[in-house]
């Protein structure tokens, strides 16, 4: 009987896309997908962006080993690349595979003779885009994630990701076109993702930039909707924003990491833009697409962040038309310049600021959702009685719909975290 496996993903959309590729590779080797109860092999595709992410992985390893002592545990991803020996020492771990060797996992496990090995190499030696083809949506059953870029050339002072993902590398455009064309035969929406998505193509001579690739996908594939995941603010060029606004086949969804709205904090973070630059991009997006989703990643408690700097950041965020926020509490990452700072903000202060920004994000989300009531939105139906609008709202449906269709849905009211059709419950005022 073929070995039964489960891939559990942690972290960003790029990691989720990696996990889908691992799952496809294992299936191709003859292994059988299973749930946790039935899995002989559990692949943990990890994140290491914060200490909390690391803690979650270790807790999951302990729980699996306690509840399924006979299961093999293979750990891969960013945590595996950063601290392989630490993970290999955990009880129950059979193999640790870094990002440098992630695409080899199906071959490594196919022989069923792995016991404690560490497979890792120099991620900065990688010059090719390492990714297996994605032909199915895996966990996202109606919205496959297609990773088209990996690595990052930025050196933000708080971030460990360049050390575990390597330099920026892009999928060849022909490969992206072929994969989107294949996915379009099964799915209505494809999400383009990457570690630094806006840098796609920059290291490929004569290839062009992200907007050019998106045009090719619109011209050369039948995909009904493309969605861009997170793009650095200054990579939201006028060209890209105008393309998004001018095509009904691109989701009106702008997610641009901010981190802080205080100029002095951005400088200490080694971010490459100032608040005024960021505001210009967001305001341009909203002018071109009045109902678009606008999201940001924001960090609180960065080393040295004063009360005045946090107040500046809060006021800046309050002034912009965000529809949602992903708020993170600063977490020291060993090996980063910020972790060596002697001006660490006390953890209770960090948490207090996180709470304040999350409250602000909830207020902005509610205002945006209220403004959608009475409008008709284009949305892709999911498999759980909901749909996802092009402007990133979860829509509770009044009547069951077949999943994986794009439909025009009238918004009749609000739920606790989304919107709903008329007649769907619960409804908020």
Give structural notes:
With 429 residues, the chain is of the alpha/beta class. A 6-stranded parallel beta sheet has the order 2-1-3-4-5-6, sandwiched between helices. A 6-stranded mixed beta sheet has the order 17-14-15-16-19-18. A 4-stranded mixed beta sheet has the order 8-7-9-10. The chain contains 13 helices and 19 strands. It has helices at 13-28, 51-67, 78-82, 84-88, 105-110, 161-165, 173-184, 210-220, 238-246, 263-269, 275-288, 307-319, 347-372; strands at residues 4-9, 32-33, 41-46, 72-77, 93-98, 117-119, 145-150, 169-170, 189-194, 225-228, 253-255, 293-300, 324-329, 376-381, 386-389, 394-396, 406-410, 413-414, 419-420.
Which key terms come to mind for this protein?
single chain; 13 helices; 429 residues; alpha/beta; 6-stranded parallel beta sheet
Arithmetic mean of pLDDT: 90
Structural class by SSE content: alpha/beta
Total DSSP helices: 13
Largest sheet: 6 strands, parallel
Tell me, what's the shape? globular
Task: Give me the secondary-structure topology.
Blueprint: E1 4-9, H1 13-28, E2 32-33, E3 41-46, H2 51-67, E4 72-77, H3 78-82, H4 84-88, E5 93-98, H5 105-110, E6 117-119, E7 145-150, H6 161-165, E8 169-170, H7 173-184, E9 189-194, H8 210-220, E10 225-228, H9 238-246, E11 253-255, H10 263-269, H11 275-288, E12 293-300, H12 307-319, E13 324-329, H13 347-372, E14 376-381, E15 386-389, E16 394-396, E17 406-410, E18 413-414, E19 419-420
Parallel strand pairs: 1-2, 1-3, 3-4, 4-5, 5-6, 7-9, 9-10, 11-12, 12-13, 16-19
Antiparallel strand pairs: 7-8, 14-15, 14-17, 15-16, 18-19
């Amino acid at each position: 009987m073929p070995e039964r496996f489960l891939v559990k993903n942690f972290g960003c959309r790029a990691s989720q896309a990696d996990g889908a590729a691992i799952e496809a590779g294992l299936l191709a080797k003859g292994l059988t997908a299973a749930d946790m109860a039935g899995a002989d092999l559990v692949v943990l595709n990890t994140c290491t962006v914060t200490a909390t992410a690391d803690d979650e992985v270790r807790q999951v390893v302990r729980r699996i080993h306690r509840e399924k002592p006979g299961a093999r545990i293979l750990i891969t991803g960013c945590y595996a690349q950063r601290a392989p020996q630490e993970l290999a020492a955990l009880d129950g771990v059979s193999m640790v595979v870094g990002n440098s060797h992630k695409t080899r996992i199906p071959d490594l496990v196919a022989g069923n003779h792995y016991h404690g090995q560490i497979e890792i190499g120099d991620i900065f030696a990688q010059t090719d885009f390492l990714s297996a083809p994605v032909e199915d949506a895996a966990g996202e059953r109606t919205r496959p994630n297609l990773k088209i870029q990996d690595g990052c050339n930025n050196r933000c002072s708080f971030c460990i990701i360049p050390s575990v993902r390597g330099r920026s590398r892009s999928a060849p455009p022909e490969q992206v076109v072929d994969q989107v064309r294949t996915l379009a035969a099964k799915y209505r929406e494809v999400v383009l993702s990457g570690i630094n998505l806006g840098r796609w193509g920059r290291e490929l001579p004569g290839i062009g930039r992200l907007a050019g690739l998106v045009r090719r996908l619109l011209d050369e594939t039948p995909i009904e909707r493309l969605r861009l995941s997170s793009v650095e603010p200054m990579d939201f060029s006028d060209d890209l924003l105008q393309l998004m606004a001018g095509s009904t086949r691109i989701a009106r969804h702008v997610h641009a990491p901010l981190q802080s709205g205080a100029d002095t904090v951005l400088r200490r973070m080694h971010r490459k833009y100032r608040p005024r630059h960021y505001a210009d991009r967001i305001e341009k997006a909203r002018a071109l697409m009045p109902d678009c989703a606008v999201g940001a990643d924001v960090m609180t408690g960065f080393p040295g962040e004063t009360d005045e700097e946090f107040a500046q950041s809060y006021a800046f965020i309050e002034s912009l038309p965000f529809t949602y926020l992903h708020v993170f509490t600063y977490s020291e990452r060993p090996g980063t310049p910020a972790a060596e700072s002697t001006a660490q903000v006390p953890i209770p202060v960090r948490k207090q600021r996180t709470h304040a920004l999350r409250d602000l994000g909830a207020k902005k989300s509610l205002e945006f959702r209220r403004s959608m009531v009475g409008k008709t939105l284009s949305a892709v139906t999911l498999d759980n009685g909901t749909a996802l609008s092009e402007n990133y709202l979860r829509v509770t449906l009044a009547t069951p719909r077949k999943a994986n269709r794009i439909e025009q849905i009238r918004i009749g009211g609000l739920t606790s975290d989304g919107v709903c059709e008329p007649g769907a419950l619960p409804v908020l005022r």
